[in-house]
Amino acid sequence: MRVLFTLFLVAFALSIEYVVDHAYIDYLKNHVTWEVTDYEENIFRGWTIDEVKQLLIPEEMMDMEISSEPYIITDDSEPKETDWSKDAASCIHDVQNQGSCGSCWAFAVADMVADRCCMQVKDYGILSQQELVSCDKANNGCGGGVRDYAIDYVVKHGLVPEACYPYLAKNGVCPTKCVDGSDWVSAHVCKCQRRINCVGPAQMAKCLETGPIATGFIVYRDFMSYKDGIYHWNGQGSALGGHAIRCIGYGTTPERHWKCINSWGKNWGRKGYFDIGVGECGIDTRQPGYCDPIKN
Fold first, then answer.
1. What CATH number is given for 17-293 in this structure?
2. pTM of the model
3. Of 30, 77, 100, 221, which one's alpha carbon is 20 to 30 angstroms from that of 125?
4. Which ranges constitute the DSSP H helices of 124-175?
5. Taking Cα atoms as reference points, which of 55, 52, 53, 26 lies closest to residue 39?
6. What share of the chain is helix, strand, coil (3-state, %, to 5)?
């Protein structure tokens, strides 16, 4: 009986699929054009595929059709190269960490709004991603969300600063007071004008000329091991889910690419930053958009 139980445990262990291992890292280093994180330095070392999926948005949410008005009208001019981490460095808020909650959509939107609010109105610091997780009932908290719905929430309500409602990395009850006991309603800042969507590479590049945007793309296993360079999917494996991020720039050298900020902390990628090729994994068609805060 003990032998059978041991064999069961061995079989169960063998059935677990980890997102990174030594062999997979060696494979990537020989088959991709971007720099790969060593196994020992990979923050997803020891994570299973199922655990990684909990960080991501169910793929069906990425494909939801949301009414989007107005669209950006592009002209025939070549989009300008932009990098708001240089041109508005004091307003591009720091890399955040969503933890084990699938709240990337809330980080992408709240951080985009915080950046644009600083650039156009006033710097209120980091805005509460947790408010979107707990209070945006059109979305599903740690179970994923649609960025368009989150932007619409900000258009209607604004957001409180992080100091009012700090991040919990889990679902929560929408509060009626800030953590210091101050008034919840009056704590809201950065209420937005209308949502603007930027579907397609040309529109997305034009939108980036005015400030950061929130967008998303389909994540595959190899992305977890990105370290530097311009990411391109290696073409192997099925999708793990969708992911939302903040894009802060557009570049053309050595190829056209988006400059973006992730929400997995500073130990992933290039201290939380990454570049990704134009058109890669649907990044320029998966609800890219933004809203401009109302000027007082």
1. 3.90.70.10
2. 0.92
3. 100
4. 129-135, 147-157
5. 26
6. 35, 20, 45
Q: Are 135 and 128 in contact (CB under 8 A)?
A: no
Residues in the chain: 296
Burial 112-124 (b: 16+ CB within 10 A, else e): bbbbbbbbebeeb
CA distances from 88 to 49, 91, 115, 140 (A): 37, 6, 9, 32
Count CB atoms within 10 A of the CB of residue 260: 23
Active site residues: 104, 243, 262
Please report the pLDDT score of residue 174 as a whole number: 97
Q: Residue ranges of the domains in the chain?
A: 17-293
Per-residue pLDDT tens digits for 33-81: 999 999 999 999 999 999 999 999 987 777 655 555 545 545 556 788 9
Please give the pLDDT value at position 248: 98
Compute the distance between CA of residue 151 and CA of residue 41 in angstroms, rounded to an integer.
35
What mean pLDDT is reported for the chain?
90
Q: How do residues 169-212 score in pLDDT, each as one tens digit?
A: 999 999 999 999 999 999 999 999 999 999 899 999 999 999 99
Contacts of 275 (CB under 8 A, 6+ apart): 229, 230, 231, 251, 257, 258, 259, 260
CA atoms within 13 A on the CB side of 196: 21
In 3D space, the residue among 96, 89, 101 whose CA is nearest the CA of residue 111 turns out to be 96
Compute the distance between CA of residue 169 and CA of residue 179 in angstroms, rounded to an integer.
16
Tell me what pLDDT residue 175 has: 97
pLDDT of residue 77: 65
